[in-house]
Amino acid sequence: MVGAILIVSVIIVLIVLFLSVITTSKAYTSVQHTVDPVEGNPHLKHKEDDLETKKTRTED
Question: Is this model's pTM higher than 0.70 or not?
């Protein structure tokens, strides 16, 4: 009885693993991933301002 439960649970784990691999690979192949250019990126401006603020605080 315990052996049958173990076999069924291993089969379920393998099915879930297989399905997660399939869905992950579909997600990476169906969506085109791009990188935003560094020039004109508003998020980088905020990070530069934060770095300058931290530098002036540590120098005081």
Answer: no
